[in-house]
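WARN retry 2 of 3 for item q-0093 after timeout on previous attempt; input resubmitted unchanged.
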Amino acid sequence: MDVDAISDSGADDRQQEKAAALQDAAGVTRLVNVVCREDPIWSLELLQRAAATVEELRLNFPDEAHLLAVHAMPRLRRLEVTGNAYACVPELPAPLPGAGVLQWLRVDGLPRATTQTLLRALGRSLEVLQMGVGTAGDGEWPFSCDDLPSLLEQCGLRALRRLVLGRIVGCTHAAAPCDRQRADARRVLPGAEVLCNWCDSVAGEVV
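OK item q-0093 returned
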């Protein structure tokens, strides 16, 4: 189910189409282009309607309520989240006992603390992670990152087998710092392949 045509509209716009989407959401396994910032109440209800069955989700500009709804999705296997790096930081609860089926995650443009809390809450079953982040430098997160290994080490990514560092527009990147960052990440992620989408010519995947 793709809600791109209606999701990026205000609360007073396209109400009939949004109501129809809510009716159709129950039972879907794939839900993409959910833009949360324009009509947060509707987008939250959409996530809640789809929560029981959705397996693949692409979410843009979520707030805390939207991420909590994602956290409660029992069958979610693939998740893509993009956002505003300077937004308020939501906190997510620890994984529920027995929870953890998420296998693939892409995060771009989220605040550092949000990225970390998302990984802690959903990451213990994670096998593939694509993270938009720069190398060490003078810029702010996520355009620069001096301590990526420390961030990753605290997230319990025990099942991770592939990490792709996505160099987003405006990020800090040079060959030598990138080599060091990848080597340092490999030390805290034993058994995982650590790649840079620029240096290793890795095509980005999407949900």
